[in-house]
Amino acid sequence: MNAFSMALSEDQQSVRDWLHGFARDVIRPAAAEWDEREETPWPIIQEAAKVGIYSLDFYAQQYFDPSGLGIPIAMEELFWGDAGIGLSIVGTTLAAVAVLANGTEEQVGTWVPQMFGTPDDVKVAAFCSSEPDAGSDVSALRTRAVYDEATDEWVINGTKTWATNGGIANVHVVVATVDPALGARGQASFVVPPGTKGLAQGQKFKKHGIRASHTAEVVLDGVRLPGHCLLGGKEKLDERLARARERAAGGGSSSRGKNAAMATFEASRPAVGAQAIGIARAAYEVALDYAKTRVQFGRPIIDNQGVAFTLADMRTRIDAARLLVWRASWMAANQQPFTAAEGSMSKLYAGETAKWVTAQAMQLLGGNGFTREYPVERMHRDSAIYTIFEGTSEIQRLVIARSISGIPIR
Ligand SMILES: Cc1cc2nc3c(=O)[nH]c(=O)nc-3n(C[C@H](O)[C@H](O)[C@H](O)COP(=O)(O)OP(=O)(O)OC[C@H]3O[C@@H](n4cnc5c(N)ncnc54)[C@H](O)[C@@H]3O)c2cc1C
Predict the structure, then answer these.
(1) Which residue minimizes the CA distance to atom 17 of ligand 1?
(2) Where are the transmembrane segments (predicted)?
(3) What is the rounded CA–CA span in Å between residue 11 and residue 66?
């Protein structure tokens, strides 16, 4: 086990500084434009691919950093640059993590590179779990996967919603139910290869924040997938389903417990928390500078305790959130079980912190904070998603409450 340490190695510091430079020089200057355009910033993703930031190698290096801090450090810096562009750059990793968490080595080797493409021909990937009637309640998925033994194919029908990169992705990972009677335990994840017939983008959503990130419905109409597109393989699925049926027959709960979608979310929650910290830190820095230079009543506004104390609280919450994220990331990387839902804790606190800090920043900038002349109103809009996606704040509290009490609180 790696001892927990907050002293970053030279390597970690240089990666952080390199990402910070990219966020400052490439992402930030483009942030307002892509927010207004509400389109995927392909040239910026391509730029990130050219320097090696948008690549399987880069994420694998950060993912396998034994301290666990590689991913949170990277996320914080990129999202410090801009959250909408940041999500366009890292959205692919949610699908990649789904393959890493549920797939075989061969599936990882086949599909993950196709998710990123090459620097000359960049691609993105999408992870499609949420549905119109199954958001927080992931056990309620209706998208159905039926096995056709004659052709060794899976036939998938259903509608996914809120998919980041949905419809524009080269590779989609779709969570579907193979045995609805088993609830969450009857689900499996499938890779939908590029160009598969029957998959189409539905409505593209116009959003409040992270507007450079593409979010859309994905419609699956008679999609036929070769057997090898089932993540983990059929044998493993059959064994898992048999165990779940046995448990259900014995009166055990069929809908609760670890499932394909939850495995993906668990692994990604601290990383999502780190994104929120990046936004919060960016807004805090703007507010601190502004408070030192804006003069009212003959003195900088920071000379007022009311303003200075707000900044003190902003910084304290940001640092506390980072500590929770780093703890959870270290635990996950060092196989320490989450006994008090530490991953959910980190995402809950970081998401709420980003929303609160960015709101304070807007207030501290007065009228300027309310305009698009300054970035804090965009940061505030962007922060709002962090109490909603990857499990709302209420769902995180539910997970934590169940974990610390052992009681199936509803
Ligand atoms: C921009 C964006 C990008 C997204 N990207 C993806 C993606 O890439 N892939 C994907 O699969 N999904 C994605 N999502 C979906 C996201 O994860 C869901 O929106 C989220 O899980 C909430 O589901 P819902 O919107 O259906 O809300 P609901 O589940 O309907 O919740 C509505 C409200 O009820 C509350 N609530 C629900 N149940 C309980 C309970 N038991 N106790 C207390 N309160 C409760 C919620 O906290 C919330 O406040 C994305 C969403 C957005 C907006």
Answers:
(1) 389
(2) none
(3) 13
